[in-house]
Specification:
The chain has about 240 residues and is α/β, with parallel strands linked by helices. It has two domains: about 160 residues, Peptidoglycan recognition protein-like (Lysozyme-like), CATH 3.40.80.10; about 60 residues, no CATH class. It has eight helices and seven strands, in the order ββαβββαβαβααααα. It has a five-stranded mixed β-sheet with strand order 4-3-6-2-7, with helices on both faces. A two-stranded antiparallel sheet has the order 1-5. Strand 3 and strand 4 form a beta hairpin. Helix 6 packs parallel to helix 8. The radius of gyration is 17 Å and the shape is globular.
Amino acid sequence: MWLGSRTFPGGSGPLIKLTHPSPNFGPRKNGATADMVVVHYTAMQSAQAACRTLCNPDNEVSAHYLIAESGEVMSMVAEDMRAWHGGAGRWGDVVDVNSRSIGIELANDGYSPFSAALMDSLTDLLRGIMARWDIPACRVIGHSDMSPARKIDPGLRFDWRRLALEGVSVWPEAEQGASLDQFPQMMARFGYTATDDPSLLLDCFRRRFRPYGIGPLDETDMAMITDLANRFPVDQSAPTA
């Protein structure tokens, strides 16, 4: 399959050339198109090492983009193709996240701050993707959001609030919330998958929206998730994939 420059539905943005083509991709299933973005970190020591991993056919893993610490954007899989970055997990009714998403890997060891250059490039990249595919800010999520039992990336050091201020993600405007026993329902309304372990859901929520929160579920958590669930309920009517 040809992996050169190509345009995308809507014609928004310049031609995009695959700078580091990965063989690890396939067609999106059941006629699905991208309507969300999943952000990951590589958990590796360098972008170059991550690039080798994502482009190695033996690894059967890939992403549409990898952003280096320097801010260099490496394009690996065409946006209209299905990259292999999400694995098992779901967001709302979407169970085949790979078929419905664009995956972005960020070069980060999982412990260090994300560089300003990387974050600048991520913001620019997200703006282009969201325009090309008409993706709303509420459907830019982290790997941990879709797989709370398996993944923690992009992690505690990732600045979700900055992305929200740039208009490429969302952030709660907490005032008051539902009662504490409504936490699982509010999480599901926003998009998180229900689980029998409420502490796991709380950890996942705080990792993104309240990274320094401690202790049991409290009214601040409830105000935040209630606001998000009411303003950005997940699209339950979208066709599943």
